[in-house]
């Protein structure tokens, strides 16, 4: 038996930061009995156990301890953007000119050589505005639309929970039952519109027969593409169904995410609302001046010179905040699922969501801001490249620049993939997480870019079918209880859009769960341990599926 001091020294957990000083591959830990051979490593000389290399016992797992702040410069830069946006916004409210909306009520006074206000014109304009608003509010279409959308939003919560429960226990049945409706629903709506428009005199006059036939054929061609995609990926559906079932089980054991993630979205909307108010009031900063044109003077609004710059600042802040919030939601989802995955029993860890929230908006907030900034820059640059492509500017230099930019953006996407998931697990900085994730997946012969496109397409088809059935039900109810006429199709279409947006958000969360479970499986494989047998039973088939009759159903870039 060793001494107490030796036991304490041996059992002390090794920090992840010691990996940088090792000459071995990052976070490498040789395993025995692994499905894939480890790279040969020269045997180190025998030495005292207390002086052994700390990287030999290094293992990746969820970091429950206190985490240091990472990527602080990007957090400070983001806070500076936000503070400047709010500071100038508050200034614009107190510095506003209320005469902005009444420019037409001002006339030029030659005696004072300035613009003066006509109060009678202002009163008549205010009365007309109030009358128009009252007429709009009393519309029956407006009433039915508001109530339909409110009811749809309320019902979307139990619909999401029911869908999650069905995907957890009956994934295969749900997918194979709804799969034919991926074809039936578009064909039904296409043929229904064609017949209804042909029978309606107003619609047939607006759309001649040739145009109706072209729309009918075009939709049928799209349906044909969907059929081809299903047939081409048919051999992959079985494994994809099992992956969706595993992710649904993981999400069902962490239902607190269904409360936290929407609340984060509501918080972002409230944050956006304040900036929009600032933008509105910033337009009121200026003055009404007289402008001479052809010897005649008119009163025009002259905006303060700082307002356009503030618009640019506020829009950039909003876009950066949007991408950062999306990354924060991924971080919270990944941290919560990882705590469940690395728990020894099947019980949910205590306060897992709260711990993930504290880490996301605390030590890792700079990492999230950096990731959001990279995603934002990629989106903006790609939008600029697409805009330049539409202009079709000739020249070999322009073509080379576009290729270089696309290659750079793809490299950033490659770098960003799984980085936030790994940072949520370990608490490492962004660049460290990107490097460690790459080496972790490469060391275990896994794909460095794994996005289960088949599962996403299947889930997208499922929510399309469910939303379409709901829209048909709404249309039938409105036809029986209201006299909206053809306007009921507009109300039903908006209800369909709202429900598919909510269910699409649910699919987005489920995709994040799939990515997180994949990273946790890679960590398990790297450590030679099995925390969740049901996950290993499914994800272990991924390399086998890639090596079989065709590549695995994912957008993969093997390394």
Automatic annotation (TrEMBL):
GO terms for cellular component: plasma membrane. It is found in: Cell membrane; Membrane. It comes from Gossypium lobatum. This is Choline transporter-like protein. It is a multi-pass membrane protein. Pfam families: Choline_transpo. PANTHER family: CHOLINE TRANSPORTER-LIKE (SLC FAMILY 44), CHOLINE TRANSPORTER-LIKE PROTEIN. Keywords: Membrane, Transmembrane, Transmembrane helix. The chain crosses the membrane at residues 72-94, 144-167, 174-195, 210-234, 255-281, 310-332, 458-478, 490-510. Residues 10-24 have a biased composition (Polar residues). It comes from the Eukaryota. Belongs to the CTL (choline transporter-like) family. The lineage of its organism: Eukaryota, Viridiplantae, Streptophyta, Embryophyta, Tracheophyta. Residues 37-47 have a biased composition (Pro residues). Choline transporter. InterPro entries: Choline_transptr-like (IPR007603). Coiled coil: none annotated. Residues 1-57 are annotated as: Disordered. Residues 48-57 have a biased composition (Low complexity). GO terms for molecular function: transmembrane transporter activity.
């Amino acid at each position: 038996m060793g001494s107490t001091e030796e036991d304490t020294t041996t059992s002390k957990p090794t920090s992840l930061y010691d990996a940088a000083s090792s000459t071995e591959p990052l976070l490498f830990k040789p395993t025995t009995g692994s499905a894939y051979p480890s790279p040969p490593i020269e045997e180190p000389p025998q030495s005292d156990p207390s002086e052994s290399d700390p990287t030999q016992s290094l293992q990746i797992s969820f970091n429950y301890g206190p985490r240091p702040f990472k990527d602080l410069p990007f957090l400070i830069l983001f806070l500076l953007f936000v503070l400047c946006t709010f500071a100038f916004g508050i200034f614009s409210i107190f510095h506003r000119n209320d005469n902005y909306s009444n420019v037409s009520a001002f006339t030029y006074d030659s005696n004072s050589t300035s613009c003066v206000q006509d109060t009678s014109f202002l009163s008549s304009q205010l009365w007309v505005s109030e009358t128009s608003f009252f007429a709009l509010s009393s519309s029956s279409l407006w009433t039915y639309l508001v109530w339909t959308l409110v009811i749809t939003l309320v019902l979307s919560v139990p619909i999401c929970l029911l869908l999650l429960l069905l995907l957890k226990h009956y994934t295969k049945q749900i997918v194979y039952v709804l799969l034919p409706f991926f074809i039936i629903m578009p064909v039904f709506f296409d043929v229904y519109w064609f017949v209804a428009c042909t029978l309606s005199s107003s619609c047939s006059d607006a759309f001649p027969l040739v145009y109706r036939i072209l729309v009918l054929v075009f939709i049928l061609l799209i349906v044909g593409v969907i059929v081809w995609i299903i047939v081409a990926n048919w051999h992959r559906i079985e494994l994809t169904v099992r992956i969706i079932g595993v992710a649904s089980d993981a999400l069902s054991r962490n239902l607190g995410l269904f409360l936290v993630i929407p609340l984060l979205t509501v918080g972002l909307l409230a944050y956006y609302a304040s900036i929009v108010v600032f933008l509105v009031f910033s337009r009121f900063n200026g003055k009404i001046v007289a402008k001479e044109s052809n010897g005649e003077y008119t009163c025009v609004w002259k905006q303060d010179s700082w307002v356009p710059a503030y618009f640019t600042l506020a829009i950039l802040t909003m876009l950066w905040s949007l991408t950062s919030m999306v990354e924060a939601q991924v971080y919270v989802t990944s941290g919560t699922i990882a705590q469940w995955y690395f728990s020894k029993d099947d019980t949910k860890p205590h306060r897992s969501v709260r711990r993930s929230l504290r880490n996301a908006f605390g030590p890792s907030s700079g990492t999230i801001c950096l990731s959001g900034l990279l995603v934002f820059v990629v989106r903006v640059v790609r939008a600029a490249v697409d805009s330049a492509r539409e202009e079709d500017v000739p020249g070999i230099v322009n073509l080379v620049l576009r290729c270089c930019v696309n290659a750079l953006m793809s490299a950033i996407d490659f770098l960003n993939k799984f980085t936030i998931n790994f940072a949520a697990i370990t608490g490492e900085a962004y660049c460290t997480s990107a490097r460690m994730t790459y080496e972790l997946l490469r060391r275990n012969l896994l794909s460095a870019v794994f996005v289960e496109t088949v599962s996403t397409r299947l889930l997208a088809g499922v929510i399309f079918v469910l939303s379409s059935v709901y829209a048909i039900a709404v249309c039938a109810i409105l036809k029986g209880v209201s006299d909206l006429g053809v306007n009921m199709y507009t109300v039903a279409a908006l209800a369909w859009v709202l429900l598919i947006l909510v269910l699409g958000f649910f699919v987005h969360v489920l995709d994040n769960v799939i990515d997180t479970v994949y990273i946790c499986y890679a960590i398990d494989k790297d450590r030679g341990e099995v925390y969740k047998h049901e996950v290993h039973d499914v994800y272990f088939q991924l390399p086998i599926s890639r090596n079989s009759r065709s590549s695995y159903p994912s957008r993969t870039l093997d390394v």
